[in-house]
């Protein structure tokens, strides 16, 4: 029994020694190596998390920087765009001024040439006429001052104007019909107003009545008008220039406006009141007049404190005096009679 226990004890001790010597160390080494790997993995994961956070922060900063850069680029592009537009506008304005200055210089030169030509023609005709009548030659140098004076007076005289209204009417009617068709009445009023103002200019009037060709007159006229004249307005100027009718442009405007009023059945009404009329009062007067006159009414209101009260209405031949001053005057006349 004791020998058996002793043998078992020795066997167990040898087993333990064998395990401690050959089995346990590799297991412990494997466990320690595994623990080390796990620890290294945790450290690597923590480092990766930190790197990820850092990368995200860097990416956010880069996005902000990119947005800021893009904003700056857009702002610079917009500024440059505005600068280019301003430069183009200034260049266009300068070019327009240059063209106008050149046109004015050409007008002045043509006007001077026309004056000189007309002066020579008048002088020649006057001398020839005198020679014909008197049947003798007169001293041209002695008569130069007299002839120059006569020529200057002739240059200041305009062409006969009695037929301008008749001349203007067909042009106004053609322009009006075209404007109605294109629904551009207001645009044509602006064009004709501007054209009439140009035609009334003394230098332009001299140019129209001078020896300049109709084509050149139309070109100068349209160059001065610039953007005020569209293609159809320029065509009207060319046609009138070719027919020698540009001098009738102011009358064309008048006839055009009359046709426009007739189309709109509008009448201008002058309303004079002792104090400023309210919007309701203006509307009431306008409605009553439109009902009575059967036309659209355009009120031209003004204030005259001497009326004391009430209003005076003038619509063509119609005059309605409902002012306090008017009633007092009528009462005074009645008492005197």
Principal-axes shape call: elongated
* Secondary-structure element string: HHHHHHHHEHEEEH
CATH class of one domain: Mainly Alpha
Distance between the termini: 177 Å
Computed over alpha carbons, the radius of gyration is 51 Å
Task: Provide the CATH architecture of one domain.
Answer: Orthogonal Bundle
Strand order of the largest sheet: 2-1-3-4
Strand content: 5-15%
Helical content band: over 70%
CATH topology of one domain: Peroxidase, domain 1
Overall pLDDT metric: 74
The unreliable regions are 125-140, 142-162
The profile of the biggest β sheet is: 4 strands, mixed
Number of helices: 10
What name goes with the CATH superfamily of one domain?
N-terminal domain of the delta subunit of the F1F0-ATP synthase
* Number of beta-strand segments: 4
- SS-based structural class? alpha+beta
Short description:
The protein has 337 residues and is of the alpha+beta class. The protein has 10 helices and 4 strands, in the order ααααααααβαβββα.
Q: Can you describe what's shown?
A:
- This protein is an alpha+beta fold and 337 residues long.
- Among the domains are: 100 residues, Peroxidase, domain 1, CATH 1.10.520; 72 residues.
- Helices cover 77% and strands 7% of the residues.
- The protein contains ten helices and four strands.
- A four-stranded mixed beta sheet has the order 2-1-3-4.
- α3 packs across α8.
- It is elongated.
- The relative contact order is 0.06.
- About 11% of the residues have low confidence.
